[in-house]
């Protein structure tokens, strides 16, 4: 009988897998020509915030809110020119990271679908100039 999970967080393997996912994701982001320039050289604080946010977003402990308050992610991303192309590039990097950490295809697709809405919600400009 297939195990039923209460949250995406549990389904993907909790904290250890989420940590690996963030560690696999950010090198791809930094190397991407559309995304890399948006991020600071010291990516560690960004990675930690992403880990905390995704933990909470996927149904785990409320790490992000406990430390930083309500996520307000759209507002936090407003200073950066987020184009539709950048949203898709972000999702592509995440897709590769999900595959790299070994999530099975159906779960990878489910996680990506869950992230598509927020990724496109952050779009705030049509061109990257």
From TrEMBL:
Q: Which residues cross the membrane?
A: none
Q: Which Gene3D superfamilies match?
A: Globins
Extract one GO molecular function annotation from the record.
metal ion binding
Give residues annotated as binding heme.
120
Pfam families attached to this UniProt entry: Bac_globin
| Cofactor (UniProt) | heme
InterPro entries in alphabetical order: GlbO/GLB3-like (IPR044203), Globin-like_sf (IPR009050), Globin/Proto (IPR012292), Hemoglobin_trunc (IPR001486)
**Would the keyword Transport turn up in this protein's UniProt record?**
yes
Query: Which keywords annotate this record?
Result: Heme, Iron, Metal-binding, Transport
Q: What is stated as this protein's family in its record?
A: Belongs to the truncated hemoglobin family. Group II subfamily.
Provide the protein name: Globin
Q: Which organism is it from?
A: Paenibacillus thalictri
